[in-house]
What we know:
Shape: globular
Number of helices: 12
Helix content: 55-70%
Number of strands: 3
CATH class of the largest domain: Mainly Alpha
Distance between the termini: 64 Å
Order of helices and strands: HHHHHHHEEEHHHHH
CATH superfamily of the largest domain: Intergrase catalytic core
Strand content: under 5%
CATH topology of the largest domain: hpI Integrase, Chain A
Radius of gyration: 22 Å
Oligomer: single chain
Amino acid sequence: MLLKSFITYLTHEKRYSPYTVTSYQADLNQFEEFVNRSELDLIEVKHTHLRSYLVELMEEKLSEQTINRKLSALRSFYKFLHRTGKIDQNPTALIKAPKIPKRLPVFVDAQKMDHLLDSQQYFDESFPSVRDHLVIELLFGTGMRLTELLQLKDSDINIYSGTIKVLGKRNKERIIPVNKQLINQVNTYIDLKKLQNFNNNLLILIVTNTGAAAYPKLIYRIVTSYLNHVSTNEKKSPHVLRHSYATSLLNAGADLNAIKELLGHASLAATQVYTHNSIERLKTIYKQAHPKA
Length: 293
């Protein structure tokens, strides 16, 4: 009942995205299983139990990012219980999150992306291929998040102004300018989608081969499959294309505040991480070109 109330709160009051709500629910369900093994109730949990849980996660060799995400869900949950009077003290208040080692964002070089997207050898005129091509173009050409792509509707594309309306975190809308080529690709895809005569009235832009709304694993498969052609990076995901978009803009001289707005970041601190990639690029150029390097 407590978890159900919290999920309802996230969905209707906080208005979190369905993807975020699902992630919170999965993390909290996992913690509830741990609590049940200790024959406790969720409202009886103390900070010592939370520490034991974190140790168990570490022993499972989960990454610091994953553990912190699960801890974030627990913090939100117990903050909710404390605020609504279900508990007197928040047990997460005494818990410190594991330190995350600093890593530069993984990205694919713009020239490699141009080769992938402009070459005729990777895509054909079938509906799945045209859709896959558009998925890669949208992710790399706008920097939108996976959840934002999945929520896109046909009507979010403004062919006259050359912009796409994106619904970001906390239901915050932003407008992203795109080039005419991408607008034409969207139009071609929508026309081809209509010809498939899918037996539904979905307004969602990206759909499966049978016309159902696209889902995260499908997008991951599409991105991984095509990036394998041009990238040797171990990590290949929709977020890598978001990083690639931001890095390409920064390398081309775009203002950091403008990139922040295009990405939908709440603060400039989140955007500044991309400056490190550019600095590393400059170091590489210096070492290769300067006689005293």
